[in-house]
Amino acid sequence: MPSRTRPDACPGVLATHEAADGPLARVRLPGGLLRAEQARVLADCADELGDGAVHLTSRGNLQLRAVRDIEELAERLSHAGLLPSAGHDRVRNVLASPLSGLHGGLTDVRPLVVALDEAVRTSDELAGLPGRFLLAADDGRGDVAGEGADACWRATSPLEGALLLDGTDTGLRVPACRAASALVELALAFQRVRGRAWRVGELDSDGRAGVLDSARPLARRVEPTRLPSSGPPRVGAHGRAVVAAVPFGQLRATVLRSLGELVVTPWRTLVVTGVDGQRLADLGLVVDQQDPSLGVSACIGSPGCAKSRSDVRADATAVLGLGVRAHFSGCERRCGKPREPHLDVLADAGGYRVEGNLVPTAELGDALKGRL
């Protein structure tokens, strides 16, 4: 088990991160769901208290940057239902299949997300979880099950699902009606045995076994199997819903106001209903799966981050049309790095290291073309 020498500094609304451009607040959205009225409140907060945009995270949450009044922000978000428990601000980390209940999947996991979030918020013990601990509810298609959750329920039929621990099938099968209880038991057991660990993957074998034992009374046992991952849903239409990519995960407040209810995904995309694809494209979102910009992502870079060696988003923008899959990072932390295969483009003195090879910024486009 690793020895953590510093406290978990994962930000929330009340415990912000002091970035180079000012305080950064992270708003948890269990299951990624953002109601229309909540979207309007967030857009107003971004305009009046932040930098005029909301920023999508790799866990389906939203961030506000350069926040000027934390107390005012917390009050507005509380009234909108986006901060229902001050004590659980940083621990409401729940991924869910974003198209669940809208298109495809074996079952609708949205009620499970509601029940799970309520169970977390009403547990004083779970308020002490690390801000990085992650729960997930997969409707059977295998999208969020591959996102490295500490504990996940993945539907294997409309009425039953597999329990995954640190992304691996445990062989425990839990009825859908007990899924929230099983995930809560796993989280409670982790909290009791974790010591200084932040994630299940940091526990030793005895610790992991202890966590798993907590859910056995709620499950039946089968032989563990490899459950395939589908990856993110493609951009474009899915029945009555549209998946739209947000370039660099930065969504202007004016655009957010016009979208109505939506689901934020862990792949910096949005699931929108009631707005057609052409309208979303007109708003600057990407709805064409063949768009060459889809494979390029980047951390915030400078001037937003003091650790970044370059304005990586400006440099990434210059190569968007190449059709490469690449992530631009301003430093070795590689914030926002996608789980899918991609080229590693790391800012360094004199340019960028592309898969470890130093390339001057002026030659970056040619270097990436050579990787196609």
Please provide a written account of the structure.
This protein has 372 residues and is an alpha+beta fold. 22% of the residues lie in helices and 23% in strands. The protein contains 9 helices and 21 strands. It has helices at 36-49, 70-79, 110-121, 179-193, 205-213, 253-257, 277-282, 312-317, 364-369; strands at residues 17-19, 22-27, 33-34, 53-56, 62-64, 94-96, 135-138, 151-157, 160-165, 168-175, 220-221, 236-238, 241-245, 250-252, 262-264, 269-273, 296-298, 326-329, 343-348, 351-354, 357-359. The strands form 4 sheets. A 6-stranded mixed β-sheet has the order 6-7-8-9-10-11, with helices on one face. A hairpin with a 2-residue loop joins strand 20 and strand 21. Its EC number is 1.14.13.83.
Helix segment tally: 9
Backbone structural class: alpha+beta
CATH superfamily of the largest domain: Sulfite Reductase Hemoprotein, domain 1
Report how far apart the termini are. 40 Å
CATH C-level category of the largest domain: Alpha Beta
- In terms of DSSP E residues, the strand content is 15-25%
In the CATH scheme, what's the topology name of the largest domain? Sulfite Reductase Hemoprotein, domain 1
- What is the overall silhouette? globular
Q: SSE string, helix = H, strand = E? A: EEEHEEHEHEEEEHHEEEEHEEHEHEEEEH
Number of domains: 3
Radius of gyration: 20 Å
Topology, number of strands: 21
Reported CATH architecture of the largest domain: 2-Layer Sandwich
Within the largest sheet, what's the order of strands?
6-7-8-9-10-11
Low-confidence stretches: none
Protein name: Precorrin-3B synthase
Enzyme class: oxidoreductase
Keywords: 4Fe-4S, Heme, Iron, Iron-sulfur, Metal-binding, Oxidoreductase
EC number: 1.14.13.83
